Amino acid sequence: MRLKQYSVAALMFILAIGWYIYAFKTQASTSIDLFGIHMPSLPIALWVMVPAVLLFLASVMHIAFYSMLGSFKLRRYQHDYDKLMKKIQLSILNEHTTEDNFKTDRYQLLGKLIAHSQLKIDDTLQETNNSKLDDTIAIIRALNSGEVVELKKYNLPKDNIWIKRNNANKFATGKLSAEDILSKSDQFDATLVENALHKFVEDAPLFAIEKYKNLLDKKALFVILKRLNNAENHLLEISNETLIALFGIITCDSACYIEASKVLGENMVPEQRIKLFELLSEQNDEAQEAYIFTLFDLEMNEVAVELLENLHVEMPKLQAYNTLRQCGKHYDINLFV
Q1: 45-73: per-residue pLDDT in tens?
Q2: Which of 138, 214, 253, 263 is deepest in the core (most CB within 10 A)?
Q3: CB within 8 A of 45, min separation 6: which ones?
Q4: For residue 18, what are the CA distances in angstroms to 5, 14, 54, 238, 314?
């Protein structure tokens, strides 16, 4: 029963007792001594009401005291509940939470479990009746659907999975350009930077590519090589010196150089191709096999055989090809590398 309702009911009851005694029992007055103090003469009905009033005041104080304690307890529960909802929200966002101290044992246990767990919401959950959690779940589903959302209010670190997903969605929808990402590559996920670079080199001019050459990888280099002298694929004209510098940025083994020679063989002028791999082989031994392959591919057989015999390096596939060629067996050299 609420304190206000209790007070009204109790006072009405006390007044009813006094009225009943005064109206139907006696209207006489009397005085009493209380702890040696002579009290004034009052109607007996009032004297009967005095203990009831004292009991009422004591009960009100008792109820108020325990109501206050209950209020403090509820406040602790509400505080822990809000803290727990925040931890659940962060867990849904794939953000690590710590074992904060809770004011109640039950929430302390739940908080500990969440701090060492990862929550993943499936598609069957419609709503939680908690607006903040519902908003967070809606954002996760929007991100998974390829939408761009606002995440600043969550103050997530840049390496958070949903920050990465949001940036990827921005890039996919055109709200973030490849050059925007490359110009601030330290602020984005490495995978997104790679994707942006591969997209960028598909049609960027040479001067723009050189601007971000420190980010170059093997896949991006091969995209560039395919554009070389290719009018149907965003034509690029690049000197051998520039190509050698680009090859120097990435780690390229023998197979990589051979594959590059095959790609360049589609559109590069033979003389430039031969000269390129000659220069590369002088700078890097890994390119020697690709140089000999290029010579065989362009039917510069005598030069290729001379190099193959004088390098004193085991190249079994090219040596097998040369042996068959000398025996009059003509095979496509691409079958050997």
Answers
A1: 787 788 888 888 888 888 778 878 878 77
A2: 263
A3: 18, 19, 21, 22, 25, 26, 27
A4: 20, 6, 14, 111, 121
As a whole number of angstroms, the distance between CA 337 and CA 293 comes to 8
Alpha-carbon distance 100 to 175, whole Å? 39
Enumerate the β-bridge partners of residue 42.
Answer: 30
For the chain, report the end-to-end CA distance as a whole number of angstroms.
91
Q: What is the pTM of this model?
A: 0.72
Q: Residues near 247 by Cβ (< 8 Å), separated by ≥ 6?
A: 221, 257, 260, 280, 284
Tokens 């023998």 belong to which residue?
254
Task: Say which residue the tokens 């149907």 belong to.
Answer: 232
Burial of 75 (0-12, 13-18, 19+ CB in 10 A): exposed
CA distances from 333 to 99, 232, 329 (A): 65, 27, 11
pLDDT digits (tens, 9 = 90+) for 87-102: 888 888 888 777 677 7
Residues counted in the chain: 337
Asked if 162 and 143 touch (Cβ cutoff 8 Å), the reply is yes
